[in-house]
Amino acid sequence: MSESYAPSPELAAQANGQESLFAEAEADFEGFWAAQARERITWAKDFDVTLDWSNAPFAKWFVGGELNVAYNCVDRHVEAGNGDRVAIHFEGEGGDTRTITYADLQKEVAKAANALTSLGVAKGDRVAIYLPMIPEAVFAMLACARLGAPHSVVFGGFSSEALHTRIADADAKVVITADGQFRRGKPAPLKAAVDAAIAHGDDESPVETVLVVQRTKGDVDWHEGRDQWWHDVVDGQSDTHEAQPHDSEHPLFILYTSGTTGKPKGIFHTSGGYITQAAYTNSVVHDLHPESDVYWCTADIGWVTGHSYIVYGPLANGATQVLYEGTPDTPHQGRFWEIVEKYKVSILYTAPTAIRTFMKWGDDIPAKYDLSSIRILGSVGEPINPEAWRWYREHIGGGSAPIVDTWWQTETGGIMISPLPGVTELEPGSAQRPIPGISAEILDDEGQPFTEAEKVGYLVLTKPWPAMLRGIWGDEQRYKDTYWSRFGPKYYFAGDGAKYDEKGNIWLLGRVDDVMNVSGHRLSTAEIESALVSHEAVAEAAVVGAADETTGQAVVAFVILREEAQERADEVGEGGDLVQELRNHVAKEIGPIAKPRSIMIVPELPKTRSGKIMRRLLKDVAENREVGDVTTLADSSVMNLIQSGLQK
Ligand code: WT7
């Protein structure tokens, strides 16, 4: 059976993203983006220059323009007469709900902006946000945007250690958090991690105020003079606030992501270019029609997907969307479909790892719900395997909804490679082509572009794009080294392997660096290794991402114990307990998402003569494969030693 997934004529006719966009962008790249910026965004002052790339790789977009991003996401919709439109259908984990119209959102954001001002937050100050998926997270982000105070959202699943590093690196003066968060039906503390992050070590914390949303009503330690309840500070504020315009290149946010070294990178994004691309892509890729669609992106706001496709893109477009606090299986495995049915969700954007989990739970679960409102499906975070793609279309999309497999990164700020649902003939498993306005190529080891089918190379981006990162916070050199040196300064190196098929579709093949992708979350091998060696029992550690049916990759660690720990493990057979302890230690240092699936205690690690750990060989072991070429090992017997040790 040949698979053909062309768009229906109805969709093709009414879709926002039309074929003609490709030609327009091709004919006049800057003119195309200037038109997007002027059409989709309200500027307080129009820009003079579309792109300044004279100081590459540091781009400036829409130079001379001024805008307020929060005004674009909120106020202008109210001014246009859409104040009564629902912006957010909030669905709490426990089933509590809240409906927030654009008029309500305007008031909430104004109050939060006034509150932050009263706490001394001024333009340019950094604010850390460590919150669950509750409406206050959106209010807080938009209040920061309104003031021009860059936010740094830290995923609520990260540990106090991780939070500490991020607060320190961005020098955040305020942290916005909650007393606790609901996880699988139970309240779990959250503020305690903020307390620990601030009290961490000997250095003085930059944090002056901790603003605490009351969510779970759990006990919290209170630091007089530093801690303030959100309801005390925000509720009494005036619900109007005059938004000031900011420069197009004013920093909007910092978002930390894992790189190839132990230290997370503070990816920073600015205003005009970012909001233009977020709005454009949400419109043409998700085909959002704000007057009729109900949109739902299931990501957490702690990741870039939540930034661009919950907060900035959809709100700039005036969307009605669902914001869900909980997990897919609480209180039951039909929870997502119950929500789709309840709100008549028409556009659903989720991750392959979730789709594979739903497949495992069984077709009968979604079959119990009315999913007929769905018309567009999206996928993000990792390659979607064709089986999961077909299941998604069949069981969630009623056999007919187009799936947009969207490739992008924290660094790109917005979607880069994806089908357009009204144009593209879909190819399951491939993200297909760069969207209009974006240019990508695949290079070989020597940095030569090629177009041959089935040959594997490296994905690069060949032109700047509006939502591109403007750098790594506080580290210009690392920005150049990481992205603009592997193939010279002309190419942005994405870190992903890729190939073309015979139709010219791009297939993404996973990371080519020491970065793992676990459930669509980026984790660095080096970061987990340093967490492991920070434990007293560990002398050395090597971490690999091993293929995993559900999560895409799973963390597998190999550790060499210190002598005393090894002796203890041998004598009293405490190895098992120790492994458990080490797994928990990683969760404590980084967060539960980084917890290794397994830890193997080994006598040696495979290294090259120059001392580099050969992770490729460890990956073979972790994936139960015959070990590959060992000739570059300094000591080729090491792999035998490791394998015989593991068989014991
Ligand atoms: C890495 C970026 C994009 C927001 C969420 C993750 C992988 C992402 C796809 C896709 C194949 C994908 C890449 C990329 N990735 N989407 N549709 N197909 N791979 O953002 O944490 O910055 O991770 O995720 O490896 O480099 P991130």
Distance between the termini: 48 Å
| Rounded mean pLDDT score | 94
**Segments where pLDDT lies below 50 for 5+ residues?**
none
Q: Helical stretch count?
A: 22
Chemical compounds bound to the protein: 5'-O-[(S)-butoxy(hydroxy)phosphoryl]adenosine
Q: Major sheet: size, sense and barrel closure?
A: 8 strands, mixed
- Give the beta-strand count: 30
What is the CA-based Rg, rounded? Answer: 24 Å
How helix-rich are the residues, as a percent range? 25-40%
Task: Record the strand order, biggest sheet.
Answer: 12-11-8-6-7-14-15-23
Shape: globular
Beta-strand residue percentage: 15-25%
What is the element layout, followed by pairings?
Layout: H1 9-14, H2 20-27, H3 29-40, E1 49-52, E2 60-63, E3 66-67, H4 69-73, H5 75-82, E4 86-91, E5 97-101, H6 102-118, E6 127-130, H7 135-147, E7 151-153, H8 160-170, E8 174-178, E9 180-183, E10 186-189, H9 191-199, E11 209-213, E12 227-229, H10 230-234, E13 246-247, E14 251-257, E15 265-270, H11 272-284, E16 294-297, H12 304-316, E17 320-324, H13 335-343, E18 347-350, H14 352-361, H15 364-367, E19 376-380, H16 386-396, E20 403-406, E21 440-443, E22 457-461, E23 471-472, H17 476-483, E24 492-500, E25 506-511, E26 515-518, E27 521-524, H18 525-533, E28 538-548, E29 552-561, H19 563-572, H20 575-589, E30 598-601, H21 615-622, H22 638-647
Parallel strand pairs: 4-17, 6-7, 6-8, 7-14, 8-11, 11-12, 16-17, 16-18, 18-19, 19-20, 29-30
Antiparallel strand pairs: 1-2, 3-13, 4-5, 9-10, 14-15, 15-23, 21-22, 22-24, 24-25, 26-27, 28-29
